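Complex 332.
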Amino acid sequence: MLEIKNLSMAFETDKGLVKAVNNISLSLSNSEILGIVGESGCGKSATLLNILRLVQYPGRIMSGEVMFQGEDLLKKSRKEMRDIRGKDIAMIFQDPMTTLNPVFKVGEQIREAMRIHGIFSNVKGGLLGRKKTLAEKDKAMDLMREVGIPSPERRYYNYAHEFSGGMQQRALIAIGLSCEPKLLLADEPTTALDVTIQAQILALMKKINEERGTGIILVTHDLGVAAEFCHRIAVMYAGKIVEIGKTERIMSSPSHPYTRGLLRSIPKISGRREKIRPIPGSVPDLLNIDDSCAFHSRCDQGSERCQQQDIPMIEVEEGHSARCLLYSGEEV
Ligand SMILES: Nc1ncnc2c1ncn2[C@@H]1O[C@H](COP(=O)(O)OP(=O)(O)OP(=O)(O)O)[C@@H](O)[C@H]1O
Ligand code: NI
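Predicted structure with adenosine-5'-triphosphate bound:
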């Protein structure tokens, strides 16, 4: 369904190029859930925004392709992109309060989203006036019910501030779903919510994935969340994908030293208790970063050679690759 090929984007600042997304390639098949994980500032959000061409000045796409259903989104006109956004591809952001409009009733916003996407054109053809409005309201309320907003008959008339954070996020998911998108991009959709609500929202997204076959890319800094929710995981570090593979394999057999570090730094849910160890050091500055391994200075297995060359993705087993010289077959 989606294939990103060698995508690079950078922010042009007066100090130089901040390479937020550096030669990324990844693909998503129909009905698949892919997680993108990594520490703050590694380019996860930038990657998602690139898919929809929503990166703002001074950000600029330098090269690459974003193939969606066989066509390159980077070659589409602005108008074509507007049609694709919210119709074929919907996006959910971290903070629902900033994306719901405070001055309109939540239900009306959902109804409006459905109207924009022509969802009502096949509602009992020829309905007029009040009857049409009622039919539309019914449909909007159905959608509210589907995303788990209780008593939609009443909730329809509430404003955003009368909704809890979890309910706001549900309303936004309803708006995202109003067009029946094929692909849902979710940028930390549950980070602002408490743990039980977070689990409910993820369960809701999973249900949508299973029932409607909607493909999902979930951006999260939380490897534990990605492990529970995603079929495959891509680990990003300093603008590059450093490891990608099936979730079980990433969790049971992490290959890149950075992924191993991330795993050690999350609390174990089950099994043997291990001491939580944060990865020493911090993420490098993306300003004028070169092509060598950016994790080198924090890595306990690196050598001189990691600093001297552009390291390719190396397949460690079928469908599982890591950008690390440990797997090059040469002495590191
Ligand atoms: N307007 C800008 N000008 C310069 N650099 C920017 C700008 N916006 C973002 N960046 C840089 O781009 C890089 C990638 O940012 P991005 O938001 O994609 O990271 P992220 O992985 O989503 O992080 P987080 O987990 O904090 O959301 C960061 O290093 C950030 O500092
Ligand atoms: Ni982000």
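The pocket of nickel (II) ion (ligand 2) is lined by residues 44-45, 187 (CB under 6 Å).
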